[in-house]
Amino acid sequence: MSRDAVIRVSVSPGEVRVAGLVDDRLEAAWIERPFQPDGVGDLYLARVSAISPAMSGAFLTLSEGLTGFLPESELPPPRRPIAKALQDGLALPVRVTRAAQGGKGPRVTARLKPPELALAEGARAPALLKRGDDAALRLARAWDDAPIITDGAAMAAGLRANLDHGRITLHHGAVFDAELEEAFAELASPRVALPGGASLTIHPTPALTAIDVDAGSLAGSRDGVAHERMNIVAAQEVARQIRLRNLAGAILVDFAGLSVRRRDALVAPLAEALQGDPLGPQLLGMTRLGLMEIVRPRIHPPLHEVLGLPPTALTLGLAALRQALREVSARPGTPLRLVAAPELVQALAAAPQALDTYRLAAGRTLVLLPDRELRLGEERIEELPA
Questions:
Q1: Taking every annotated instance into account, which residue ranges of this chain make up the domain S1 motif (predicted)?
Q2: What is the 3-state composition of the chain as percent helix, strand, coil, each rounded to the nearest 5?
């Protein structure tokens, strides 16, 4: 990783935002909610609940209310058909390899290393044995020489327990500046601005993600060279947005202003732009309609499932808690209330861990006041009347 790389970890009530910057440009982004971990890397002593030869796998009870799927290919050796290798009720140590996403539960593997298997000794199924690494630690290990700056004391302590202490700085104050806050806010929008008025629009669907390139001021122009240059710039941003938003599965890209024949010239630039992705997405080529086909492994949930698109009541509520803490820092001791749409208040009430974190950080409770006249996005923070 470049010497000009840095990792910034912003900790706020109910949410951790991780930014990887190279030469001050956002190149990696993660948003996690500690009270809703995605579970990748978690170790369980699971119990087989249903064997499905037709699906070449088995469903396992990981914990109360949580079921995972074990593909036959993820059984430990020797290789045998799933119906012969397992039986209902069997206790089996597994690790989560893919988070629940797209309406499907987590996927697991039973191919574990001896230290992982040792954790299951003496446990009773079903049981969580160990949590996997969080986003900050994953990025820190991937960018193994990048300094890490965080505003969370517990986060700093956790990172120091696993990494060289000299890499980690506990910063007293916000670690996201206004530009970085804006960059993260843009990740919650389907539109991405490009130079010259061009843009990308990102459309997630249950089956695939479609990315449309709009030519902006070049729309209607017959200058093929200018269109090609614009699309090459778009290809670079497409690859970056796929990484930042953690888009996965099938991805189709519709470039702008070029005939299907001329779009062949974009295959090589797009393939090159995708090469820096740690998940190794594959550019499968171009369809007969001129759409570029990309497939990228599904591991962690895409950002639009974490935040919602448009942002959910919980996403907006956690952002309001973050803003309220900033106001408390600017006016210490001032009692505040959050006036918001009832569904936002309900979403925060269902996340008591986030409200408790706010209370500990602010030294007082944030009063929640539902207002039926307000819509999501119209919430406001006010000084509590005497």
A1: 41-113
A2: 35, 30, 40
